[in-house]
């Protein structure tokens, strides 16, 4: 990989980290970001505030965590990111955003899964599972999160936070923002009463309609 490619990875990871911080999804030294390019992965460095991260504080490693380029120890959650990125490219996933966002973190303390109350959650695959608690950086956490992510583009982490995936970092960030919005909506609805959930038929209807009109993709007006 050329120095230009390494620079591009670092720029993308640092930009995504700052975006997450600007939206309040990470505070101080919490959270981490990764991007796979070929057989290499860019990871935010451990102990670095994401709102002020510099490109050189993104460490480039191979798929097994060996440092290829950089002077800073990668995030303590490197194993979590690499466990996802080693296998997920088959599903088009090349980027991971791990946050400690307030509403997702709060719901992770009381729910076993976030049910589908808003149709936009279907963009993430459906009900979001809550991975059982395990110590940060541990193999147990990586295994639990990978299991929770099966068939999903996001999951909550019990008493911890959330993780969101994407085919690139802007999409992973968008998904992290969506997770937090969905968690806030569920929180607020629960304060008013029992949230009305979408049943299987309603969910199928949304998916079919979205596929028919290519929902979410910009479209030019067809003119004669």
Automatic annotation (TrEMBL):
GO BP: pentose catabolic process
GO MF entries: aldehyde-lyase activity; metal ion binding
Keywords associated with the record: Lyase, Metal-binding
Domain Class II aldolase/adducin N-terminal: 11-187
One family name in Pfam for this protein: Aldolase_II
GO cellular component terms, semicolon-separated: cytosol
Domain of life: Bacteria
Name used for this protein in its record: Class II aldolase/adducin family protein
Organism ancestry: Bacteria, Bacillati, Actinomycetota, Actinomycetes, Micrococcales
């Amino acid at each position: 990989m050329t120095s230009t490619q390494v620079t591009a990875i670092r720029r993308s990871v640092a930009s995504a980290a700052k975006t997450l911080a600007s939206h309040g999804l990470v505070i101080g030294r919490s959270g981490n970001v990764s991007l796979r390019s070929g057989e290499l992965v860019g990871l935010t460095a451990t102990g670095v505030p994401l709102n002020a991260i510099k490109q050189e504080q993104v460490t480039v490693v191979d798929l097994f965590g060996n440092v290829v380029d950089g002077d800073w120890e990668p995030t303590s959650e490197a194993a979590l990111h690499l466990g996802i990125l080693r296998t997920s490219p088959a599903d088009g996933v090349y980027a991971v955003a791990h946050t400690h966002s307030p509403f997702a973190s709060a719901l992770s303390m009381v729910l076993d899964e976030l049910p589908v109350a808003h149709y936009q959650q279907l963009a993430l695959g459906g009900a979001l599972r809550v991975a059982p608690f395990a110590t940060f950086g541990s193999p147990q956490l990586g295994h639990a999160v990978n299991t929770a992510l099966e068939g999903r583009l996001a999951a909550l982490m019990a008493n911890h936070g959330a993780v969101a995936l994407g085919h690139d970092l802007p999409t992973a960030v968008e998904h992290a923002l969506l997770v937090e919005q969905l968690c806030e909506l569920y929180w607020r609805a629960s304060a008013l009463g029992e949230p009305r959930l979408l049943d299987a038929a309603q969910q199928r209807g949304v998916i079919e309609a979205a596929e028919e009109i290519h929902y979410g993709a910009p479209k030019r007006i067809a003119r004669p």
